[in-house]
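Help needed: design a sequence for this.
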């Protein structure tokens, strides 16, 4: 290598390019983190207020069918007839054709609060991804950034609002990078996503937002072979359950679309079903996020059928057209299932609930690194080895299913082979690497509304 003048000029140019890019993303991280932190705080406060009001006024649940009609009407008057929700955000990262409308942020904000106020079973973090993604696209348009930079800002927004709502900045940053294309991490977005996430989290702490973190009393202090076998066993069960949950969510959604062509009728029918379930079961445990039930499970208490009922409530809520997310309901299902099964397997119920929650989440979103850091930020690093084993097993055995139809599996889970297929597909060949044998069973998940 000759240290010529041209060599030094190239080195200087490279240093300037790196420094400029770094400074650019620091500035945009500050902008995104601040805006998303404030919006996320407002969203958190509104959802918490809606939840508290519903818990003190149980009769409001009977108005859930009418609330669904209001949500559909709001989307229609804003000109959105086909709402793909979080799937649109995920798809927009890989394609310039699927652009997130700026009005998605206020729409999903308002409609999610309405859903929680009247007792729909949904989460907040799915809405956070849509709010953050919409803000990111809007900021990108404002500063006239190119498509690649707008995609990174979309990831920043997803990370920042997720962090503001859940109080897990590292998990939030990794999730937005990992969830888009399984097998590929968008490392170019690591700095802006992490900084946006941390800034948003810092703002929520400054505004005295309280996030849920847990101390698991029954966390194992030592690791032995019988314990590892039990952890693997529970992770296998969570992987199977996560696949069934994703299939069930898709089936319920398709059944609603098949038998209720008009979305006003569809969402009203779903609301009536949820009200009837509340009357029959005589409980409100499965309305809203159910964070109190998750906390009980992590303390070692859960009804054996809680995970099944929460899956049913969530599938009806999301399937018929109410808004929100599926992530917190997946925490509920995983935690209550782990608590119930852990006791039967000889594990501490509280620890089993935490393990079940993380492994089930890993199975439904196919994000093992995100799930691992989630366990650390929520429960501490004492059980990192056991959670790592659980996440690895759950990821491998959960198959090609996901909460998000637009999520892609880039590399096979079984061998180092490029597959590049969408989740929730039926595989007709023995080897998932052969694309010729794939038959798509998922439909366009837009909500068709009759005139």
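Sure. Designed sequence:
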């Amino acid at each position: 290598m000759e240290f010529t003048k041209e060599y030094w000029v190239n080195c200087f140019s490279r240093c300037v390019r790196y420094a400029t890019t770094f400074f650019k993303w620091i500035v945009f991280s500050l902008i995104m983190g601040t805006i998303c932190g404030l919006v996320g705080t407002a969203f958190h406060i509104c959802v918490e207020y809606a939840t508290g009001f519903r818990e003190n006024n149980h009769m409001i649940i009977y108005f859930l069918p009418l609330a669904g009609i209001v949500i559909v009407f709001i989307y229609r008057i804003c000109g959105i007839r086909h709402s793909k929700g979080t799937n649109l955000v995920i798809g927009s990262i890989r394609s310039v054709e699927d652009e997130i409308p700026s009005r998605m942020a206020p729409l999903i904000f308002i409609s999610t609060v309405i859903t929680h106020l009247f007792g729909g079973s949904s989460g907040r973090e799915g809405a956070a991804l849509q709010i953050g993604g919409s803000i990111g696209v809007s900021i990108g348009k404002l500063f006239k950034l190119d498509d690649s930079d707008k995609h990174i800002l979309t990831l920043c927004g997803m990370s920042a609002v997720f962090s503001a709502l859940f109080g897990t900045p590292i998990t939030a940053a990794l999730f937005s990078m990992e969830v888009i294309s399984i097998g590929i991490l968008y490392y170019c977005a690591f700095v802006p996503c992490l900084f946006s996430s941390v800034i948003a989290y810092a703002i929520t702490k400054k505004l005295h937002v309280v996030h849920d973190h847990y101390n698991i009393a029954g966390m194992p202090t030592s690791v032995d072979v019988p314990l590892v076998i039990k952890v693997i066993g529970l992770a296998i069960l969570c992987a199977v359950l996560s696949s069934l949950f994703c299939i069930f969510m898709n089936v319920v959604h398709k059944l609603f679309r098949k038998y209720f062509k008009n979305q006003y009728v569809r969402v009203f029918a779903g609301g009536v079903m949820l009200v009837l379930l509340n009357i029959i079961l005589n409980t409100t445990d499965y309305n809203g996020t159910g964070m109190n039930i998750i906390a009980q499970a992590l303390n070692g208490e859960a009804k054996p059928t809680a995970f099944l009922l929460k899956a049913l409530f969530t599938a009806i809520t999301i399937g018929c057209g109410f808004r929100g997310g599926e992530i917190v309901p997946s925490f509920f299902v995983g935690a209550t299932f782990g608590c119930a099964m852990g006791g039967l397997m000889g594990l501490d119920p509280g620890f089993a609930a935490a393990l079940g929650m993380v492994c089930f989440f890993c199975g439904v979103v196919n994000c093992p690194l995100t799930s691992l850091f989630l366990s650390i930020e929520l429960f501490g690093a004492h059980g990192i080895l056991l959670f790592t084993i659980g996440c690895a097993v759950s990821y491998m055995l959960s198959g090609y299913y996901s909460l998000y139809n637009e999520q892609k599996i880039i590399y096979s889970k079984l061998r180092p082979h490029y597959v590049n297929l969408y989740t929730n597909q039926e595989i007709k060949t023995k080897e998932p690497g052969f694309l010729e044998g794939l038959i798509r069973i998922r439909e366009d998940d837009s909500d068709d509304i009759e005139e």
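The beta strands are 181-182, 408-411, 418-422, 426-427, 438-439.
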